[in-house]
Amino acid sequence: MQYLLMLYAEEGGWARMSPAEQEQGVAAYGAYTQALKTAGALVGSNRLQGSATATTVRVANGKSQVLDGPYADSKEQLAGYYLIDVADLDAALAWAARCPAATHGIVEVRPVWSM
Amino acid sequence: MDRTAQARRAADAVARRSYGKLVAFLAAAMHDVAAAEDALSEAFAAALADWPRNGCPANPEAWLLTVARRKGVDRFRRHRHGEAAAVQLQVLAEIGESASADGDDAAIPDRRLALLFACAHPAIDAGTRAPLMLQAVLGLDAKAIAAAFLASPAAMGKRLGRAKQKIRQAGVPFVVPTRDELAGRLDGVLEAIYAAFAEGWSDPGGTDAIRRDLTAEALFLARLVAELLPQEPEVLGLLACMLHAEARRSARRTAEGDYVPLAEQDVALWDGAMIDEAEALLSRASRLGRIGRYQLEAALQSAHVERCRNGRTDWTPEVQIYDALLALCGSPVVALNRALAIAELKGPEAALEIMDALAADGRLVDYQPYWAARAALLARAHACHDARHAFDVAIGLAGDPAVRRYLQDRQAALPR
């Protein structure tokens, strides 16, 4: 089954880190991605630009409304994702727990709608 | 007896004997509790039509499984397409064949434990785990479960439906966790069983048949888990704890339905066989050498029983067990009960001091037993004014009319 791991984190956190800590953080994500690849579980993954770059769009009465900013105004924002393919929810939760974001933020696990 | 009645009796017997096993087997194969339940109930309906005409099959379990598998396959074809569905169909076909080819119901693998672990999975809403287990393994309908958990049938039906949908869509596995994960995951299963038991226990008069049955169903589940995981001391501890509580059922109320506190219960009314079984389980658990919350709770029950039976007045063992329990789980309810044991050892003032500190926690402010205990201690300490107030709160929070009556009598007995 495919699961989307959505990584939520407090956005100021990264800027407050020292260069050495940032380097360590990047390395941890690199290692995690490598582990997923090695296990044959990785389908896709990306880190996102900060929520200040977000724009929301909705169409109401035929007119599109474009607004600056993210959809949900919460302290933790979506910072990236991993799309993985594993046997079941337990396997997905085990990968989510290993994700560095689970330590400094929150990882939401959602099964992908299978056709 | 006519053949229809005979068929119905045979079907009832299979349902009683094997319902949980059949549902568990189908659910694990289909990765879907609701579909397994539906397929099995269709199979039972087919049996009631077929058996009166063609006679009861030699192996009714295998007959039902074959029909349920066919119904499940049909359902799959109707509702799902694509590669995943094809794989699933293959699995269903193979598993169904192997089970029916052996023609022996002992050959149906017992997946009930895996089903219980799926129902009590951390991904399932905590409050729905116990109802879900009761429905999936015992086949109780949503209406009966709703009555037992004081919920509306519609709301309970929705909660159960949502949980089953999550199991299917999120891919909750039907497996018994591996050794290193077992302890943590087993907690969820045991907690749900205990919650079901507590629901039944809260109708001590046994006036409500559904709720009284719930303690029996919870005992059945605990026995089942104990049988399937005989090396897990906490399972044995939970079963022992529940048996101890159940053994005192008929002593908890007078014939008139009045509440009788433990200290005043007639020990002759306790069920000796249940107490013996509980004690045997507890000593088996302790030989496994891993202490835990349920074993300690059972040990407490055991100490109470021993003290009451032998007229012992020393509360030291109880206080020691509470100390261990508090160190293990830090719950304010345990701390409260520990304070009550200390009251017996050192007097009400010592206990009230602990309780004042506990009240700062805030979680006990609407906990009825806290106020009842506080009232009783204040009365013993001759602080009548404060006692009267505490009784008021305790009476106001009580849901059980017998407990309310008991507290009102105690309040009225306070010197003016």
UniProtKB/TrEMBL annotation, chain A:
Classification via InterPro entries: Dimeric_a/b-barrel, YCII
YCII-related domain location: 1-115
Similarity annotation: Belongs to the YciI family.
Protein name: YCII-related domain-containing protein
